[in-house]
Design a protein that fits this description.
- By secondary structure, the chain is α+β, with helices and mostly antiparallel strands.
- 38% of the residues lie in helices and 22% in strands.
- The protein contains 8 helices and 10 strands.
- The N and C termini lie far apart (101 Å).
């Protein structure tokens, strides 16, 4: 018997065993439906027969499964939480909970795709400023006005406006172009003043600018041109440029005015000389959401 005939007999023998496997499985299924546990022996026999077929198949080339026998399409993996957080279906209620933000209330409702934005000069305080501010907060607290120091200090050159996400790049590019040719300068402040927001939901203690007012007005006109281009609100008509030092919830303008003389004396008599806040206006910045854009001014 030649080699081809041997292979043919081997495949024929394997097919017979497969047929036996199918019959055994069908018989096992029928017995399961009629006699329950009595079919266990037949099931074991069919499993033994299947294993035998598998062992005999090991000597033959592996047959590729047709597509109809393959498993169905795999289910998609769930998206990571960090990706889902980028596209929330609705605003997290915690973002609107004022108790989580020291009682502060948003001037406008947070919406997906809206970025709170403003233009400003940063102020980097020195150690002397920190000591003075601690004294001011302590004196105000003794008069019943509980103030919270600002997380960071700056001088605003715009109102807080809302930018749509797709506006950010053209807005900052327009601002950069408008600032071409603007020179850096130094301004100073030393007089305390009380401010409140338009909604009267917060009251601020600020230090008003006394020098550099003309240069700041020139910059306001520059920034306002970009605001107008995007149909956003421009700055106040008669601005009082200042650096906010601390704040409290609600309209406490009257209470703060009553202790202003005492607080101002701490500034005027600080270490035997008046304290002067000096602000280096060399780099304008634009904060939009969690992004900060920097615009160095010319020397």
């Amino acid at each position: 018997m030649n080699k081809a005939r041997v292979n043919w007999h081997a495949r024929s023998h394997t097919h017979k065993h497969r047929a036996q496997c199918v019959k055994a499985l069908i018989s096992s299924s029928e017995d399961d439906g009629e006699a329950g546990g009595e079919a266990e022996g037949d099931k074991n026999q069919s499993e033994t027969t299947c294993r035998k077929c598998q062992e005999e198949d090991d000597g033959l080339p592996t047959r590729k499964k047709p597509k109809t026998e393959e498993e169905g399409p795999k289910s998609r993996l769930p998206l990571p939480g960090c990706v889902l957080a980028m596209f929330p279906d609705e605003v997290d209620s915690q973002t609107e909970d004022s108790s989580l933000h020291g009682g502060r209330i948003r001037s406008f409702k947070h919406e997906r795709g809206n970025w709170a934005s403003y233009v400003y000069f940063p102020y980097h305080p020195e150690e002397e400023f920190g000591e003075l501010l601690d004294g001011i907060l302590s004196a105000a607290g003794a008069r019943g006005v509980v103030l919270t120091a600002q997380d960071e200090f700056h001088l605003s050159l715009s109102q807080t406006v809302v930018l749509r996400h797709h506006w950010i790049q053209p807005f900052t590019q327009s601002l950069k172009s408008s600032l071409t040719g603007c020179k850096r300068f130094v301004c100073s402040a030393g007089r305390l003043r009380v401010y409140s927001n338009a909604e009267k939901t917060r009251t601020f203690l600020g230090m008003e600018v006394s020098t550099g007012h003309a240069q700041l007005l020139d910059l306001i006109r520059t920034v306002d041109r970009t605001m107008t281009e995007f149909r956003l609100e421009t700055f106040y008509k008669d601005p009082s440029f200042h650096v906010s030092l601390a704040w409290c919830v609600g309209d406490q303008t009257v209470q703060m005015e009553e202790c202003m003389q005492e607080l101002q004396s701490l500034v005027d008599d600080h270490e035997d000389r008046p304290f002067v806040l000096r602000l280096d206006c060399s780099e304008l910045r634009c904060r939009t959401g969690n992004k900060t854009f920097r615009f160095p001014l010319e020397s």
